[in-house]
Amino acid sequence: MNSGFSNSDPGFPIPDFLRGLPPGAIKKVAVPIGSLLLLAVLISGGFYQVQPEEVGVVLRLGQYTRTTEPGLRLKMPLVETVQKVPVQRQLKQEFGFRTDEPGVRTQFAATTTQLSDEAIMLTGDLNVAVVEWIVQYRVNDPYLYLFKVRGLSSTFRDMNEAIMREVIGDRTVTEVLTIGRQEIESQVTERLQALAVQYETGISVDQVILQDVNPPDPVKPSWDEVNQAQQQRDRMINEAGAEYNRVIPRARGEAEQLVLQAEGYALNRINSAEGDAARFIEAYAAYRTSPTVTRRRLYLETMQRILPTVGQKLYVDKDTTSLVPLLPWEGLSGGVKPQMPGGGQ
User: Fold this and answer.
1) What are phi and psi of 325, to 5 degrees?
2) Is residue 73 packed enough to be buried (19+ CB in 10 Å), middle (13-18) or exposed (0-12)?
3) Is 135 helix (H, G, I), strand (E, B) or coil?
4) Looking at residue 106, what DSSP letter applies?
5) pTM, rounded to two decimals
6) What was the pLDDT predicted at 18?
7) Crossing angle (nearest 10°) for helices 220-289 and 291-306
């Protein structure tokens, strides 16, 4: 099969359709074609496209010259090169795990020795915790990001791991696994940003997210038992607190009610006693002024107060010897009929 070129002739290969031409004609045709090809290569190499989320960093013979914005740009062919840096895109790095297909589906890579070494950390109370986390960041200075630190990706990972181990080492395993996660995230973010600025990495740290924090697999059963015991303890404490809040306020209310009732009763008795004493003193003063009138008045007032409470009455003269038998004896108070003189009724 003929490939269109022949390497059997000396010099550069000549296409088959030019082999029938004289040597002078071949030269006249080859030179313009080569010039056109060279010009096309130069033109195509002079343009480049910067995406909206990127900037272009232009190097001239390996030296930084300028940073270009998104759009179609021009550079010097064969002299200038372009490195594109995503400054608007949020980047991330994963520690203790890896995502197999980011952006497609959530599927984590199988655990390896390297991933285990990243995740296993020693806490402040000399316990071990498996910590997996994500760092989300952006590039805020393309020049520093590309040229200031050699091996920036690995350096940034080492910075993350060092700071995370430092923060985890200042806390107990209970804080790391339960209540201290948010504080750990904020503290790691703050320290990592300060270190990134100190090293002039050109990176702005958005946030640090603790993906998963667990005890090591060999001690998980014991840890689960401890958690269950703590949960049961907390439940019992909450139930006792609820019972306390239900019984104690009611008892206090009843006690206050009894105290108030006793105070009211005491005040009532004191006021009554003072009123009686004042009334007695007033009556005594009137009695001393006019004993006969006062005695009769007191008697009449007493009878006026008592008689309405004892029912119907029948008054007879003490010298009466007989009564008319048609009087309504049944309507008398207590239903007791008066005795007639001589034992009759």
Assistant:
1) -75, -5
2) middle
3) strand
4) -
5) 0.57
6) 55
7) 130
